[in-house]
Structures are given as C-alpha cells and as structure tokens.
Amino acid sequence: xxxxxxxxxxxxxxxxxxxxxxxxxxxxxxxxxxxxxxxxxxxxxxxxxxxxxxxxxxxxxxxxxxxxxxxxxxxxxxxxxxxxxxxxxxxxxxxxxxxxxxxxxxxxxxxxxxxxxxxxxxxxxxxxxxxxxxxxxxxxxxxxxxxxxxxxxxxxxxxxxxxxxxxxxxxxxxxxxxxxxxxxxxxxxxxxxxxxxxxxxxxxxxxxxxxxxxxxxx
Length: 218
What we know:
The chain is α+β, with helices and mostly antiparallel strands and 218 residues long. The protein contains 7 helices and 6 strands; from the N terminus they run H-H-E-E-H-E-E-H-E-H-E-H-H. It is 36% helix and 13% strand.
C-alpha cells in the first residue's frame, strides 16, 4: 500500500479526494465516490467495515448485519468494484435486520491495521471502522462527539495511531467501566479536531454522511 507524508504542511488542511463536491447526497453520488477510490483504499475500507462483521467457518463467508440496508448496498458496490460478489438478504420475517454476505478472500477478522499508520489507506480503514462501529450524535441539536469503541484494544490503538499520524487529536484509549465490561475499550476525537475529522475521514454510511454534512453547514 502506498503512503504519503501525513504530518507535512501540505496535508494540514486535510484531503477530500474521495468526495464529489457540489452534488446532492444520493446513493449514486456515494457509489461514484467508490469508483474514484483506488483498489487498495477500497480494500482497507472494507477491512474496517468488517469490525462489525462475523465469519462463518462452515460457509467460508463474512457477514455484516444492519437495521438499514442502505450502507450494505454501498459495501456490495465496493465489493463489486473490486471484482467480488456480495449478497444482501433480510434475516427473519419479523426482524429488522439485513445482512450482507460475501466470500471475498481478502477479508479477515485478523487484519492488522498497524502498517496503515501514515497512509491514505489508513484513512480509508478508519472511515470503514467509523461507519461500522463509530459513534456520533443522531441529532444536530446534540453536542457533537466522535467515538470509537471495540473489545480488541490493540486494534483500537491502531485506529488512534492512524488518526494522530494525520494530525487528528484524540483522547487516550480507556475502559469506561471495568465493573460493567473489563474488555470494552473506547476513545474520543478531541473537540479541536472535529472539523479535521469530518473533512479528512468523513463517512460513506448514508446516515452518518448526512449528519456530518449537516454539521459542516452549521
């Protein structure tokens, strides 16, 4: 995977190379951005998205579930762009759960993101990670925050290192409550880096993308 000089002066304002500016937010616009993204960054994005997925050893597939199939359709499009297939189906008649399943061989739950520190693929990985499991307020009236949570502390620390290598300031990785769950880890993006995070990392999740665009206009 290629690398840039993320801490250099040329990158202080961030990059929206994956964005198509000036057009209304539509599924077609998001899918067009996929086509404008290099294969290595698309693979990294999907590896990040897989943090919300599971692996079936029996069927040799990976599965990602969501209440809203919109983001799954984007993942399916990303897979298709890379030459792989993905199937979307509703799980259970009365459950509000949609599942994307794929046999794409490059995907793995053991993916090590540490080598992505300081690379544009790293930003793509963090975007996929944020779309899968990152948190932000659903209402534009609420106080803004960006958080990342995961039980795999080593993986979460790699996400933090990627962000900080691109001058996105973050708090420390910590356990919110050892009595509730000693294996649960979290960190927040610091307020002074909110705008840079929204500009640099952004989102390809339709709901989160809309929330970020709303925040950027405030």
